[in-house]
Amino acid sequence: MDDLPPTLTEWTDAPRVRRLNQAPFRREGWYVLCWLQQALRARDNPVIDVAVLLGNALGLPVLVYHGLREDYPFASDRLHRFILGASRDLAIGCERRGLACVQYVDRAAKREKGLVYRLAADAAAVVLEDQPAFVAQWQAERVAAKSGTGVVAVNAACLVPPAALDQGVGTTSAFRRRHEKAREAWYLWRDEEPTVAPYDGPLAYEPDRLGGASDAELDALIASLDIDHALYPSAMLPGSRDEVLIRLRRLTEEVLPAYAEARNNASRPEGSSTLSPYLHFGVVGPREIMAAIKAADVAEDQQQKFADELLTWREWFHYRARTMRVPESYARVPNWAKGQLEKHADDPRPELETLDALVHGETRDETWNACQKQYLIDGWMHNNLRMYWAKRIIAMTPDPQTGWATACYLNDRLSLDGRDPSTYGNLAWAWGDAAPGYRDNPIYGLVQTRTDRSIRERPGGPEWLRKMAAREGPRLQVPETPPVDPYLSEKLPI
Ligand SMILES: Cc1cc2nc3c(=O)[nH]c(=O)nc-3n(C[C@H](O)[C@H](O)[C@H](O)COP(=O)(O)OP(=O)(O)OC[C@H]3O[C@@H](n4cnc5c(N)ncnc54)[C@H](O)[C@@H]3O)c2cc1C
């Protein structure tokens, strides 16, 4: 960090920032490039703040860039519509903040090769995201390795950046203690204001500018792309800042007063915040959510329960993922659980299902189908259903590795909050992070199983499950077996 301007090295949030290469910052560059991959918000965004700090220190404007490829794993109307809606609001927010923001939507009619490298070549510095899962980390590392420009990565996902905590913490309770102690200091940061006019000089390409795009224009653009059109956007979870504001108001006024009890009732999706997709794509950050909660008149114990989910559990999985080369891998399942599952790999599997039946929620298990229809139709699943859903996949697939790949495939392809450190952390939990059970069951061994009793025994439970399982979803193209590690393709271009 020696060559960083003093304003940045002195910045109290320094553990948020990581130098990815040793290339110098080039004062002759035209701008500081702020490459957003997932943190699609204009304010309360540490990636933008670090870029602005650097820009101000170097006397250069900041160029915020967001690009969306056609060929990332699981590209679909659902993901594209959410992302581009959020990107549109990012552009509007940047303009209000006095920052230039340009976009690129990859398509046959406008193919830009190596665009990030070309933008970086004209930059004094590149500021990008420190994201531990899915394609973002490969892309960041590749740009840092190839670029002759200094690259820094900034954590925008967590309230407390993992690097600010003791390293090597091994249990959630130890992590919780440390995180709770560290939290307060991280509530205090403010948007950095740019002192240089927005960049309006030459660019390495003719940019897309989504800030002024209407819904119809976004839809037409998406319809023209070579992506999975059968997986339609989620009506429940539109991608926009307005939807975040609606959810924050609902959270403080309606959800939190009864959160601890209501969040366990799957037949009441309104019992939780439904903010996870917005957190995954960074349309909102944890600090803004906590500020809204602190400002509201809500009982302390309900606030604490919510903070435990949002801050302890979510940030624990980010912390864990940061120590793993491939957080998506089956290898992360604890050894004792892998041993149990593999010992029983040859057990008869009378409940085997095809991948097509699993994707479409057409298995012989009505409760599981009700869960899966939420992923298939809404692009989200209630927390209380996810553990049952995940554990049952082990019995419905031929072996534990295929089961893991199947769960990742269903979660990542369909759910708007998939492809996240919380996805793989929670799946690993279902596969055996919890303590071993006492019964050596077929297929599972000592890995704990889960029944649907708590869902079925609620008043109206069976009727609700029947209705949910019967919902009509999209018909998707499904391979015979799930792709094993689609995330590892180092060939994905940028
Ligand atoms: C098998 C399985 C798979 C899961 N896959 C994902 C996933 O792909 N993406 C994802 O974001 N969450 C995942 N979760 C965690 C959790 O189910 C969702 O975060 C939650 O249901 C989202 O709904 P909400 O926003 O209404 O949650 P709320 O109850 O309103 O909680 C607020 C926020 O806290 C965080 N949170 C809540 N529970 C957890 C948890 N168990 N772990 C980590 N963070 C949590 C989320 O960011 C959530 O948005 C999974 C859980 C299980 C058991």
TrEMBL record:
One of its GO terms (molecular function) is deoxyribodipyrimidine photo-lyase activity. GO terms for biological process: photoreactive repair. InterPro entries: Crypto/Photolyase_FAD-like_sf, Crypto/Photolyase_N_sf, DNA_photolyase_N, Photolyase_Class-2, Rossmann-like_a/b/a_fold. Residues 470-494 are annotated as: Disordered. Keywords: Lyase. The keyword Lyase applies. PANTHER family: DEOXYRIBODIPYRIMIDINE PHOTO-LYASE (PTHR10211:SF0), DEOXYRIBODIPYRIMIDINE PHOTOLYASE (PTHR10211). This is DNA photolyase. It comes from Sphingomonas lenta. The lineage of its organism: Bacteria, Pseudomonadati, Pseudomonadota, Alphaproteobacteria, Sphingomonadales.
